[in-house]
Amino acid sequence: MKTAKTISVKKFFTLFPDEATAVSFIEKQVWGSNQKCPHCGSQRHYRKEKIHGHRCLDCRKNYTVRIGTIFEKSKLPLRDWLFAMHLMQTSRKGISSLQLSKELGITQKSAGFMLHRLRESCKMGNGILQGIVEIDETYIGGKEENKHANKKRKGSQGGSGKAIVLGMRERGGRVKAMQMPMPAITP
Q: Which end of the chain, N or C, is surrounded by fewer C-beta atoms within 10 Å?
């Protein structure tokens, strides 16, 4: 099993000293060695340094690694996106848009936009868990005695009236959690 390796902020800025290194890193992650034009699918292209992108020799259109990713239609530098990812991963309790805006020197609105896109990209797909899978459930909701009088459920106990959350985890792997529908209670 791999152990998680975190890097310091100093090491991060050593790895990504400028925008060009951040762009080349993301290109390797997104395209690998099979780079194709997103407009026509051609593999014939040349690099355009001015836009940190490429120009297709067949359809004659410019394109960058941002097309079809969470970075699309964002004017923020890719280095800032990578640093935001780093901060999200290394912060113990996550990071707020206000804190991210201070760290990156951008507006809170832009930081909120980044965090929204990053969180959306982290959502689990419909991938099937493999190997040994551990499953457990929990009931989310307050104690009946702590509720206001008109919110209390008379004569109920346990998980009645609470949200049911089911969690599944691969041994040493991915985690999925979902809210289950409330069972119909028939008197």
A: C
Nearest to 52 by CA among 33, 83, 34, 76: 76
Report the distance separating Cα 60 and Cα 39, nearest Å: 10
Q: Which residues contact 98 (CB under 8 A, 6 or more apart)?
A: 108, 111
Burial of 30 (0-12, 13-18, 19+ CB in 10 A): middle
- Residue extents of the structural domains in the chain: 9-122, 133-180
Task: Produce one character per residue of 154-174: b if its CB has 16 or more CB atoms within 10 Å, e if not.
Answer: eeeeeeebbebeeeebeeeee
| Distance separating alpha carbons of residues 186 and 147, to the nearest angstrom | 24
**Amino acid letter for position 45:** H
Residue 76 burial (CB < 10 Å; 0-12/13-18/19+)?
middle
Tens of pLDDT, residue by residue over 154-181, are 766 666 777 888 888 888 778 888 888 8
CA-nearest of 54, 122, 118, 107 to 81 is 118
Residue that has been written with the tokens 């020197």 in this structure: 105
The reported pTM is: 0.64
Phi, then psi, of 71 in degrees rounded to 5:
-85, -5
